[in-house]
Structure prediction request, 466 residues.
Amino acid sequence: MTRASNDHIATGRVDAEGRLVAADGPLLELQRACGGDLGDPLAIPALIGLIAKAREFGLRLARPFEAVDGERRITAWAELEPRMEVEGALGFVDLSLSSWQAEDYDPEDDAAIRLLRRNVRRELSDLTARLDPQQRLLSVEVDAPDLTRAGLAMEAGVGRPWTDFVNFPGNSHEQPLHWRLLDGAECTIEGSKRRWRAHLDPLGNGEPGSGGFLLSLSSERSLPESPLGEARGPEEVPSLGRDLSPVLRQPINRIIANAETIRTKLAGPLAAEYSDYAADIAAAGQHLLSLIDDLSDLEVVESDDFVTAPDRIELADVARQACGILSVRAREKGIQLAPPMAGESQLAIAEFRRVLQILINLIGNAVRYSPSGSQIWVRLDRIGNRAIICVADQGQGLAPEQQERVFDKFERLGRSGDGGSGLGLYISRRIARAMDGDLTVESAPGQGARFTLSVPAAEDLRSEPR
Prediction:
């Protein structure tokens, strides 16, 4: 039997040490059923993960959660709001529960156990992704700063196997392996110093994985405290990048994943016109994510304290990685990407992630506006103390007056319906100049365009005399 309530039926508070210091009604009953009591550490796994995220981002969250009290399966809606301590650090988190439903639970029901484990993993993980039955990416959601580069690459590489974006130490077998061999496997991710464990939860009725998979990546190591939790004054306007973007991304990612499930007919047979509708929904969701990313980046690059983290990098490696990320999109349009040749090298002083971001934008634009059957070249050069990387296409090109405006904010040169925000080149130039570099364009109508990124060059230490 199922019992439900749609009102706010329970409230509580968790302190900075994770103890449930206040609770009433069903929340306290559930805490006790899970092995804790008032004043003890919170014992409800799904709520532990939600509170960690609310405290990490310093923002109010509203999410569904599931739990088991031994005899019943509980589903409810939780609203969590971090509170500031006197010193301004994030401390208490207030809870409010509503839409409470309790139904009889059979401990021998393996499907129910798998569902609960999957929900707990999702809440505690730093990266979740929806995969199709071939383990190809449909959507991705990242909650950890050290996975930003991987998340960017995965979003641009939708349609590729997720294993293309992680490394399995000591495993040279062709990827992806059978999902059972990858479930629980340890891996490393470029851009993160932590070690990660992957969990694959099969979806679909009948054969496990027939409806795809839910991928969760989690690490036993936590990141050091970040400034995301710093207090804001009551009059400060919420930040899109810091406050709203994480909240918006999750429901949009779910819309995309569900639309892709419908489009690819993983949930069952479907008329062609409805599959096309689902494809339009997924494309619109990807467009919204791109707009959120652009607006978040705009906020960052226009802030007074925006700086990059320059390091010694190999531009050829960045260029090859950018081309690899966009290779599927280029092939779908019948366009050939020509990255730097093997053995080519150009050392520079710049931030790897930011250069990759710029190149993905430049190559992505070239793919969008180039005709089928054309080529896009990515070439390296050096002029004096400047390291150069150029992206050249065979598109329709830009008139002189368009070249003067192409880097302006929200400038789309009269184009409509192409999914662009008019911010990519503006943001890319701001990033380039923050790295003591620049981004320029040379073009002529009917002769394609050539975008050139220049950054400080680095000397090859191997060639210097000892």
About this structure: The chain is about 35% helix and 25% strand. The longest helix spans residues 272-301. Residues 18 and 41 are 5 Å apart (CA to CA).
